[in-house]
Amino acid sequence: MSTNETSFKPALHVECRMRDTDGFVRPDRVREEVTEWICENFISLRIDQRLENYEELNHGGAIQSISVVGFSGVQEDSLFHRLADVQLDVQAYMLHPYVVDDHVSEVRPGQQHDDELKPKTRTMPLPSANIHGLWESFTTRMGIVIYWLNCIRELTSKVSMTKSQRLDPNIVSWNHLVLLYGPPGTGKSSLSRALAHKLTIRLGKYFLRGKLVEVDPQSLFSRYFGESGQLVAQIFEQINAMADDEACLICVVIDEVETLTSPRERAATGNECGDALRATNQLLTCIDALRHRPNIVLFCTSNMLQAIDSAFVDRIDIKQLVPNPCPRAIYEIFRTCINELLRTGVLVPSKSNNEDPNLNMRPESPLSQSVHDFVLIEPISIPRFAEMEIRLYDQPHAPARKLWIISQKADGLSGRTLRKLPFLALALYTFTEPSTIHEGLYALSLAVEHELRAYNPHDTDLSD
Ligand SMILES: Nc1ncnc2c1ncn2[C@@H]1O[C@H](COP(=O)(O)OP(=O)(O)OP(=O)(O)O)[C@@H](O)[C@H]1O
Ligand SMILES: [Mg+2]
Question: Residue 190: enclosing H or E segment and its boundaries?
Answer without folding.
Answer: helix 188-202
